[in-house]
């Protein structure tokens, strides 16, 4: 399924569908973002402009250069998924020829605030926040109660703002401490530079935004999976509560995850789909993703270019990304997920050639990327439900959701019968391990490492720092507030 949606970050192209843009509009809105006044005026004339601006936020999730670096690792959310998977150690840069990600695998980028690797996620997520604030301001501000289609636009803007702040908390905070000052909060367009707010206030905003979005997205039937619907918003809120990792927040995370599962909107990824390439947003288990077409023009500067040996780019040409050898060794030989990785030696050793691939399966074959981007799938919620249930002593629920997933990864129930005998920390550890295995390469391992306060010892197949043990709150695993922000915001002292 390939659905084209409007390219309307610049707004003018969208308006041209109904009437031509005036020269004045082009002069007053030359940037990627339409200005606050433009949104308000255009929205009053044509409410769809607001939907266009929302679509623009979703486009930033996969467009190149949205982090302001312009490098071949700057391509939106999936770029940061690679960064975080490498930082936590589950993804090994096993061969480095061109140098992309070398600074991350060697723990150099995150300890140098002048390194642009710190600037990219900061700029990207705050750009999402600014665009969300444009829509929210245009509809009356944070306390507004718009109706009709504009209620859905408002809700998506709130959810996207929360998504951005959530990832900022994960990347720029070593661990959850409610009293630690961390991030500047911006909830309106045009606010002056803000000081760092306490972690508790940032999380309060995320929870408030997502809670409101969940209520307002009731009844929203999205036209494609690039948009956030009610279940995606609930899942983001579940991740937020799980990151706080208190008994009360884990219970709320468990309940939300179960709500999403029991909605019946998404089936589990099947055994066949587990080695089916993870390349099509039409896959039933995919909750949130980008439907890519030739129109977007993605090529070697893309997640597929960095990860897939069957795409013309770095993965096949000399920058190999493999599963950590220690993690691979923990996968049962009868687990279908073992077969996602090349078992041989040499360059292709432990590369995900049977997990992520272009259907043509020709080495370096895909030149223009049309294989889709995955942001979230229902399997995550089964694992999150199991993990948070185990943390609050609800072993029965944890067993239920772990077993439901593992039934689709093994042919013989005897291979995972041991789960029934696990409880307490052993059950939590099992849920965490299954999360690392199931979601390898999907940008979720780093989040799981932090909320489980884990220490990971790298395997022998890392290009640099092999065999090193690093704890979740090690300074090397957290991005530094970038030099540009420190220079331009007088309220921040790094």
UniProtKB/TrEMBL annotation:
Residues 1-22 form the signal peptide. It is found in: Cell outer membrane. This is Putative outer membrane starch-binding protein. Belongs to the SusD family. One of its GO terms (cellular component) is cell outer membrane. It comes from the Bacteria. Keywords: Cell outer membrane, Membrane, Signal. Residues 342-493 form the RagB/SusD domain. Pfam families: SusD-like_3, SusD_RagB. Residues 87-239 form the SusD-like N-terminal domain. PROSITE patterns: PROKAR_LIPOPROTEIN. Its main location: membrane.
């Amino acid at each position: 399924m390939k659905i084209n949606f409007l390219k309307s970050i610049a707004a003018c192209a969208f308006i041209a569908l109904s009437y031509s843009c005036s020269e004045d509009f082009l002069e007053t809105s030359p940037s990627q973002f339409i200005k606050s006044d433009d949104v308000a005026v255009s929205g009053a004339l044509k409410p769809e402009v607001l939907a266009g601006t929302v679509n623009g936020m979703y486009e930033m999730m996969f467009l190149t250069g949205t982090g302001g670096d312009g490098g071949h690792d700057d391509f939106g959310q999936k770029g940061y998924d690679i960064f975080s998977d490498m930082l936590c150690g589950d993804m090994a840069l096993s061969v480095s020829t061109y140098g992309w990600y070398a600074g991350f695998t060697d723990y150099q980028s995150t300890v140098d605030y002048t390194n642009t690797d710190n600037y990219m996620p900061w700029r990207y997520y705050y750009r999402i926040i600014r665009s969300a604030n444009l829509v929210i301001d245009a509809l009356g501000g944070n306390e507004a109660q718009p109706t009709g289609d504009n209620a859905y636009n408002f809700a998506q803007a709130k959810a996207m703002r929360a998504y951005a702040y959530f990832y900022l908390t994960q990347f720029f905070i070593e661990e959850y401490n409610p009293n630690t000052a961390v991030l500047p909060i911006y909830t309106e367009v045009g606010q002056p530079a803000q000081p760092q707010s306490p972690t508790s206030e940032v999380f309060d905003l995320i929870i408030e935004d997502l809670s409101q979005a969940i209520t307002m997205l009731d009844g929203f039937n999205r036209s494609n999976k690039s948009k956030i619907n009610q279940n995606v918003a609930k899942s983001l809120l579940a991740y937020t509560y799980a990151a706080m990792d208190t008994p009360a927040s884990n219970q709320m995370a468990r309940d939300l995850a179960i709500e999403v599962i029991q909605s019946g909107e998404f089936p589990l990824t099947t055994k066949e789909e587990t080695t089916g390439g993870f390349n099509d947003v039409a896959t039933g288990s995919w909750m949130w993703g980008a439907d890519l077409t030739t129109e977007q023009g993605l090529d070697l500067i893309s997640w597929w270019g960095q990860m897939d040996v069957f795409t013309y780019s770095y993965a096949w040409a000399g920058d190999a990304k493999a599963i950590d050898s220690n993690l691979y060794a923990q996968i049962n030989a009868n687990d279908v997920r073992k077969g996602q990785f090349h078992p041989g030696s040499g360059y292709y050793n432990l590369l995900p050639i049977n997990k992520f691939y272009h259907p043509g399966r020709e080495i370096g074959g895909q030149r223009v990327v049309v294989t889709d981007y995955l942001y979230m799938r229902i399997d995550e919620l089964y694992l999150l439900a199991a993990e948070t249930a185990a943390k609050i002593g609800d072993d029965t629920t944890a067993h239920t959701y772990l077993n439901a997933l593992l039934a689709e990864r093994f042919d013989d129930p005897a291979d995972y019968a041991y789960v029934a005998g696990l409880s307490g920390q052993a059950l939590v550890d099992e849920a965490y391990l299954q999360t690392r295995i199931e979601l390898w390469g999907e940008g979720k391992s780093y989040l799981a490492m932090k909320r489980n306060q884990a220490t990971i010892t790298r395997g022998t197949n890392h290009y640099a720092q092999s065999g090193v043990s690093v704890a979740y709150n090690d300074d090397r695993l957290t991005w530094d507030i970038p030099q540009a922000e420190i220079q331009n915001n007088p309220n921040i002292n790094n």
